């Protein structure tokens, strides 16, 4: 057994009331001489507050009995319980010991260690900044204590002293109570919690999430309720007003709303994950935002431009959606979360377009609905041939459907519409560049993923594209919604070449 493992075992045995006199002596000696051990000891005590909610229903008699049990069974050395109100019981040995060992309750009272008062007075260091992508005031290598941090732009990746990796996306306001407890006043957070940090807790204005060995996310809007999303493992969620504890597992989500709370749609891709921030940071350092702006300016000067939505002009399009951070720190994107979320457009008038290019940076939260609506003209009418519907299908491929167009006889059927061959699924939860190029004269539809040509569909009947009133996001609440973010949507009244598409992607790629 290593020294670290022996230390952890000694602490656990002490908290459970079964430490031997030899273990007490070992603990006292190590706590006197080793600052790191003192910090680790304090952090293990922090688990007490995380598990207090789990033990609310245990009768007071049980708590008192357990406290008495420890008084009788544990020989007293210099490591002694402080005489104050009990905050949580230890393992409930009366009745079901297996159950007690499973939930591991912390000591019957807080502990005082010889020489620890000086350490408590020192400025604590709970986490270190591993990567910072455009987050002003935070840089790699910086240590974080109990002070508040507000990041208006960018993304930051932190590592706590217990090894929990945390990604926080702006705008966000947060601070650590300890290495095991983080207050998130608003913002979006993803956490990857190792075994050594089980019990890590995120507290929000509307409730808290307690880790039970997991990867999870917390979305706390500036106005609204927090949502807990479990990517892997298990989390206990509870609203701030109390109510029942909610055990959430893989691919489950819960909104901390009032005392009860409600299930929510699972949105794993809504969170920037540990491991993604370093690529975002490298792209910033390589000057990608400037390259992207130059490419967009070229498009604005294109005489065939129909519309270019970059969401940066401050003019909010009508509809129901969130304005959130885009690919670059401080940039804007439209986020569609709930069924019915949409953005209304009126592009191209009633003019017909024999050539059309559609392109957008998209970050899909999840797939599974029959269709994810990227751009749909209002209606699908017999009298308006060429109406445009651009989407991601139930097979996770891209589709460009125009009213009354027909596939060539030797084309794959695909429900009668041109579909891409490549699935979007591998890019779920990351920024991906999607594009479709339509040529009515040549009777072709070409698809592109991340700047690379994917496939071409040939048509036997092709009408000019008809735009006009349209929507991004929800088009039909039954089967055409959108869950994710849209950034920089391009609508161009000509075909773009393979080289142009590759250049557009390379200039706007947020990863390196």
From TrEMBL:
Gene Ontology molecular function: sigma factor antagonist activity
Judging by the UniProt lineage, the source's domain of life is: Bacteria
Show where the LamG-like jellyroll fold domain sits.
354-499
Keyword Signal, does the record have it? Answer: yes
Q: Does the keyword Signal apply?
A: yes
Return the PANTHER family for the record: PERIPLASMIC SIGNAL SENSOR AND SIGMA FACTOR ACTIVATOR FECR-RELATED, PROTEIN FECR
Q: What is this protein called?
A: FecR protein
